[in-house]
User: Which sequence fits this backbone?
């Protein structure tokens, strides 16, 4: 019944310099059941969203629904026809956004992909997001892209794989 | 943009190397829908459990809920939750329904759309505590959808958990393509 340890690090990207807009994971192994992406990022300047694109799909085939608490009120909203699965918001310098994203059943080639993200930022809010990618392809590439600015040096993004028995 | 093939980049230092997370068992619904999914004889050799799933039911709606029984206990549980439906956020408390595991899409949703969820059951072998489930689940159907954070406690017994029984809100089965994977954490 039990198996070897899983929750295996696939790759880590640590940003250097101040001109990186996208952190990419390519040739993602298809040997796991779920992926977990942990992002710890801030921006060079300004506040921006971080979105995920799968398999370089930049069409409007993403949508998401989220719930938010900002210290004063709770809210919920959604967007459709998006060009990314929204997962994160990053702020300037010490306002680091921290996100854990669950991509369950990512290598399945018969279902759309539903992605869950928890996000927290000292300077703004805590969010939980569910995103849909209306594509049945197995996920082989993930691009984490900042919506407007640049990743600050030292920002990290790590991809893990979990293998079910 | 920097591109690093995953298998090459795995050599980069700084990974969280986790040798304490183990797959216990997986239930995948294939062929035809099922009334329930069961994990039985769960080993007591771990400290925590995590259940990860994608789910859809055959109920004639666009969404549904998945329920769970621990150790076959059919009594109701205390649960609290925070939900967002894309328009507003709401909180709820419930002690009149079975233990709610999380959200699922259902048969009126577009084919191929499934919910996703992650549930943590901490200290599941401790016999001096009631057991609390912490659930995170959601689905998006391109114009509708919901996300839910919830916790629920089985206050009827402090027994160690040795079985998990997952079923639907009523009127439907767990549909083909659903998958539930149980993990143990040392």
Assistant:
């Amino acid at each position: 019944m039990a198996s070897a340890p899983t929750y295996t690090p696939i790759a880590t990207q640590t940003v250097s310099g101040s001109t990186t807009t996208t952190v990419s994971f390519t040739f993602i192994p298809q040997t796991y059941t779920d992926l977990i992406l942990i992002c710890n990022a801030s921006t060079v300047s300004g506040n921006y969203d971080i979105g995920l694109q799968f398999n370089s799909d930049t069409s409007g085939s993403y949508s998401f629904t989220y719930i938010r608490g900002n210290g004063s009120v709770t809210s919920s909203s959604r967007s459709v026809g998006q060009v990314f699965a929204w997962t994160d918001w990053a702020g300037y310098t010490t306002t680091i956004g921290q996100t854990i994203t669950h991509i369950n059943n990512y290598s399945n080639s018969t279902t759309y992909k539903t992605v869950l993200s928890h996000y927290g930022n000292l300077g703004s809010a805590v969010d939980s997001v569910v995103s849909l990618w209306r594509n049945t392809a197995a996920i082989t590439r993930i691009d984490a892209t900042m919506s407007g600015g640049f990743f600050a040096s030292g920002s990290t993004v790590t991809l893990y794989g979990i293998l079910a028995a | 943009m920097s591109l690093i093939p995953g298998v090459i980049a795995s050599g980069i230092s700084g990974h969280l190397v986790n040798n304490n997370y183990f797959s216990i068992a997986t239930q995948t619904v294939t062929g035809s829908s099922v009334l329930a999914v069961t994990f039985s004889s769960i080993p007591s050799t771990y400290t925590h459990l995590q259940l990860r799933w994608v789910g859809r039911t055959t109920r004639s709606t666009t969404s549904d809920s998945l329920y769970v029984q621990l150790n076959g206990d059919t009594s109701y549980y205390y649960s609290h939750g925070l939900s967002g439906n894309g328009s507003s956020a709401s909180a709820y408390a419930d002690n009149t329904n079975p233990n709610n595991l999380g959200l699922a899409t259902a048969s009126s949703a577009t084919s191929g759309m499934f919910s996703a969820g992650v549930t943590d059951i901490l200290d599941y072998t401790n016999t001096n505590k009631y057991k609390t489930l912490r659930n995170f689940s959601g689905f998006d159907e391109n114009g509708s959808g919901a996300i839910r954070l919830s916790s629920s406690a089985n206050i009827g017994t402090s027994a160690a958990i040795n079985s998990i029984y997952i079923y639907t809100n009523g009127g439907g089965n767990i549909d083909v393509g659903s998958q539930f994977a149980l993990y143990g954490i040392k």
In short: Helices of chain B lie at 6-9.
